[in-house]
Amino acid sequence: AQKVTQAQTEISVVEKEDVTLDCVYETRDTTYYLFWYKQPPSGELVFLIRRNSFDEQNEISGRYSWNFQKSTSSFNFTITASQVVDSAVYFCALSGASGYALNFGKGTSLLVTP
Amino acid sequence: NAGVTQTPKFRVLKTGQSMTLLCAQDMNHEYMYWYRQDPGMGLRLIHYSVGEGTTAKGEVPDGYNVSRLKKQNFLLGLESAAPSQTSVYFCASSYGQGATYEQYFGPGTRLTVT
């Protein structure tokens, strides 16, 4: 069975603070894929990143960075110098190589205030 | 290039009524999915399709039926709506199998069953 846990239900920060969203996963597959999606207040789901289980390199994209650690089964997401536009619900998701669907965590609601 | 579109955007049904949600994609994707999103639950897979004329059950298929008569369309039907089906429904599509490829999501349909 596959499972994604996002223990932080809600996070509130002040603009320009750094914030890390935690994601812990469980899987028996040796090949799997991890994802982060953003859901802004408008409701659509926006793809942020996909990482396969063989690539443990951290990734940075502008103010966003991801830390993938197989040893702790974690795929954490950090926003540096947060902005109000970062306010959204962020979902971590997992799928095996032979799976058809994404197994989503319950999401972390991030509120960035001015 | 509209991506993934869903109709309608909002709908209110009475218990026992039926309706069909339409998902259309113009990216020539083979795979299509229907998810539901409930508060605090993340997204859960209802049904999916790996190609025209094929459908399969996901995690929460009860009370729903689907059809994929054309490659670009994936229909989700509720034969006898129940209040437990009040949710936001998302359609998604991908070029290849499951999560090895990015899933593109539609804007969602908010359904209320009274």
Description:
- The complex is a heterodimer of chains A (114) and B (114).
- Chain A is mostly beta strands and 114 residues long.
- Chain A is built from no helices and twelve strands.
- In chain A, the strands form three sheets. In chain A, strands 2, 5, 6, 10, 11 and 12 form a six-stranded mixed β-sheet that branches.
- In chain A, a hairpin with a 2-residue loop joins β7 (59-61) and β8.
- Chain A is globular, with a radius of gyration of 14 Å.
- The model of chain A has no long low-confidence stretch (mean pLDDT 92).
- By secondary structure, chain B is an all-beta fold.
- Chain B contains no helices and eleven strands.
- In chain B, the strands form two sheets. In chain B, strands 2, 4, 5, 6, 9, 10 and 11 form a seven-stranded mixed β-sheet that branches.
- Chain B starts with a strand and ends with a strand.
- The relative contact order of chain B is 0.33.
- The model of chain B has no long low-confidence stretch (mean pLDDT 93).
- Classes of the chains: A mainly beta (114), B mainly beta (114).
- The interface between A and B is medium-sized, with 25 and 27 residues.
Brief summary of the model shown:
Chain A is an all-beta fold and 114 residues long. Helices cover 0% and strands 54% of the residues of chain A.
